[in-house]
Amino acid sequence: MDTILIVDDEKSILDLLTMVFKKDGYRVVTNPGSAKAFEILAAEDVDLVISDIKMPQLDGMAFLKAVKRQRPDVPVIVITAFGSVKQAVEALKEGALDYVTKPFDIEELKILVAHGFEQRRLREENVLLKKTFQDQSSFENMIGKSKVMQEVFHLIERVASTDSTVLITGDSGTGKEMAARAVHAHSRRREHSFVSINCAALPENLLESELFGHTKGSFTGAVSEKKGMFETATLGTIFLDEVGEMSPWTQVKLFRVLQERKIRRVGGTDEIPVDVRIIAATNQNLKKRIEEGKFREELFYRLNVISFEMPALRKRPEDIPLLVSFFLQKHCEKTGRKMKRLVPDVISFLESYSWPGNVRELENLIERIVAVEERETVTLASLPADILGTQRRAEAPVILKPGFNLEEHLDQISKRYLQEAGTAANGNMKKMATLLGISYRSLRYLLDKYEIKTFKKGDVLDRREPTREF
């Protein structure tokens, strides 16, 4: 049973919140705003804290700092008087999850508490996954609780113990190189080099030289002898990314290496034996390339000894909250920024987006949010216009039941977006109209129609007329 510690000098608030949260199935521990709250924090297994920020006998800010110092994983929601919002904002900077102003809305507080437990659950689940699937650096940055990813993790462990050639398929951005590194990290070759080369990034003559090396004077600019990557990776692993882009001539030479385990440098005559494991990857359909005469069939079968596919992100939406949490932590720590919170609507949007760029695109989005978003609460309005404008939701069949009312359904959607815009714009109607892409007059009509006057956290609607240029 999750435990909530409630600290407030008003007995009526303690009694009310105790009744509300016990009814919701939580274990509740209370303190009347005294110094003993510190003792309770040390003695009790507290999962979430709700604390007044200003109490006669206890400095709420000092208590918040103590919680974040002793139990940084415990979410803290602060309660403040309406006139002390500035102090509440300071509490957010010190690590509070969120705040509510007196008199507060019980339902709003319940939503914040539920979000606090969900955020903590995701962090714990992320840590558990990393502990489960990581052996020091193994499976680094590979996150996923979905069935398809669990199967990938299991297969990597089994494949790694062999010395067989591996072919990894999958769309761009799915993490094929990460999977190759995980195979190497679990193999008997892990103490030796992992060498990676993108076969699509170099022209034919340079790729051949990079792979197999060259002798002095073998071509213009070859002023000295050079080892190729196959020699550099001896006893280790060589990763050939985008192998489907190799020229026919380089394919012939690679086939010979796979067959004989020997290389010949460009311009050389000596055959050099190599002991190296080969992992190849491609985002193309190699069988189709074979039919088109662009890929050698005998090379495909040499590469395709063991193969597996890295699943597209759209096929594992249940992993998106975990990935978001992981990337937020990664980039917030990297930049020294405060941890950001994504509202549920944003998570729902990300789960329904098609992600043509896969995990790489998701990480780029989170990195951008951390870098440019000033607010700690991330709403739909915080997402780039190109993603919002080209949303590719997985179309679920609409099941209409008796009693469905289209007008009421559309009203609910309109209210949700008005609330999102109001929160993002701090109640400023000019900014709201811009975010929603409608006129000021249309916005005012909708606000009056739905009787919307305030937004989350007590933001008051700013109904001042816009300037002329607007």
What is the CATH topology assignment of the largest domain?
Rossmann fold
Bin the strand percentage: 5-15%
Radius of gyration: 29 Å
Tell me roughly what share of residues is in helical segments: 40-55%
Q: Tell me the total number of β-strands.
A: 14
- Let me know the largest β-sheet: 5 strands, parallel
CATH class of the largest domain: Alpha Beta
Instruction: Outline the low-pLDDT stretches.
Output: 133-138, 392-397, 464-470
Query: Pairing-aware structural class of the strands and helices?
Result: alpha/beta
The side-by-side strand order for the widest beta sheet comes to 2-1-3-4-5
Mean of pLDDT: 85
- Shape, please? elongated
- The CATH superfamily title of the largest domain: P-loop containing nucleotide triphosphate hydrolases
Number of folding domains? 4
Question: Could you characterize what this model shows?
Answer:
The chain has 470 residues and is α/β, with parallel strands linked by helices. It folds into 4 domains: 3-128, Response regulator (Rossmann fold), CATH 3.40.50; 152-311, P-loop containing nucleotide triphosphate hydrolases (Rossmann fold), CATH 3.40.50; 314-389, Helicase, Ruva Protein, domain 3 (Orthogonal Bundle), CATH 1.10.8; 406-458, Arc Repressor Mutant, subunit A (Orthogonal Bundle), CATH 1.10.10. Helices cover 46% and strands 12% of the residues. It has 19 helices and 14 strands. The chain has helices at 11-23, 36-43, 60-70, 85-93, 106-133, 147-160, 176-186, 204-212, 229-232, 248-260, 286-291, 297-303, 320-335, 344-352, 358-372, 385-389, 406-424, 429-436, 440-449, and strands at 3-7, 27-31, 48-52, 76-81, 98-102, 166-169, 194-198, 237-241, 262-263, 272-273, 277-282, 306-309, 341-342, 377-378. It is elongated, with a radius of gyration of 29 Å. Mean pLDDT is 85; it is low at 133-138, 392-397 and 464-470.
